[in-house]
Amino acid sequence: MQRQARSWQRSGVRVGFVPTMGYLHAGHLSLVRRARRAVGPRGKVVLSIYVNPAQFGPSEDFSRYPRDLARDLKLCRQAGVDVVFTPSDESIYPGKDRGIYSTYVVEEGLSKVMEGKSRPTHFRGVTTIVAKLFNVVLPTAAVFGAKDWQQAAVIRRMTLDLNFPVKIIVAPTLRERDELAMSSRNKYLEGDLRRQALALSQALRHVTRRVAGAKSGLAAAVLHREVAEIIGREPQARLDYVEFFDPDTLAALAQVARGTHMALAVVVGRTRLIDNARL
Ligand code: AMP
Fold this sequence. Notes:
- The protein is an alpha/beta fold.
- Helix content is 37%, strand content 19%.
- It has 10 helices and 10 strands.
- Strand 1, helix 2 and strand 2 (44-49) form a beta-alpha-beta unit.
- It is globular, with a radius of gyration of 19 Å.
- The model has no long low-confidence stretch (mean pLDDT 97).
- The protein binds adenosine monophosphate (AMP).
- Adenosine monophosphate is lined by residues 20-21, 27-28, 30-31, 144-145, 147-148, 171, 173-174, 181-184.
C-alpha cells in the first residue's frame, strides 16, 4: 500500500482516504462519495478496513465486532473505490504478540471528555491507527463521519499538532428512515432493542425543539434531566452520558442555545450506541 501511495504521490495523483472498521453501510459509502468529490475523477479513493484492537477496551466487543469482507468488497466495487486496504495485525502492530511493539500516539486534550471518560484507552487507539494509516496511505484528504463527532475533533487536532499534510473532511451522519443513526453495531439490536434504540434520536429531537422554542439559553442541567427521562422510558436502555458543548473546543456549556452541540451515549441491551447533533 505504501509503495503504491508513494508512486501516486510522485505522479501528483490526489488520494482521498476513508478509514473504517468494515461491515459497511450507507453511511460509510457516503464518505466514499465525499472522498471522490474531494479528489476528482482522476484521483484515487482508498478505503481501509481494519478492526483495530487498540481502540477497544478489555470488556468491549472486539472479538464479536461484525465482519463480512466479501460483502464489503462488493459494496466498495459498486461505489467506485479504487483500493480497499485490509492490513494484517502484524503489519500494523509489528511484534505486538512478542511484546516489542511500543509506540502510540496520544492526544491529551479533547480525548479526555465524553467517549474518553467512558472508554479511557479508546482515543489512544484511534489516534495511533489513524496516524499509522496516514503514513501508509499518504492521503491528500481523509473523510470522517460527523456520527463520531468527538473522534473527528480529536483527529483534526492530531493532524494539526503532528503536521500531517492531510485535509480533514467531516461528512454528515446518515440515518435510517426512522432516524436511527446508521452504525455497524445496529446489527446487534435484536427484537425490541431496535425500537428502544430510537430513544437516542428522540432525545436529540426533543432537545432541538426545546432550544428552537426558547427565547434565551436553557440550563444544561434541566435538559440533562429531560434526556435521562426519555432514555429511562425504555426498559433496556441506560444513559451513559449526555453533554452539551462547544462544537469546536468540546468545552461543556452550562447554558444551551442554538448552535450548541449535544452528544449522548446509551447502552441498549448490551450495545453501546452514540449519536450527536447541532442544536
Ligand atoms: P467505523 O467503521 O464505525 O469505524 O466508521 C468509519 C467511519 O464512518 C468513521 O469516520 C465514522 O464516523 C463514519 N460513520 C459511521 N457511521 C456513520 C453514519 N451513520 N453516517 C456517516 N458516517 C458514519
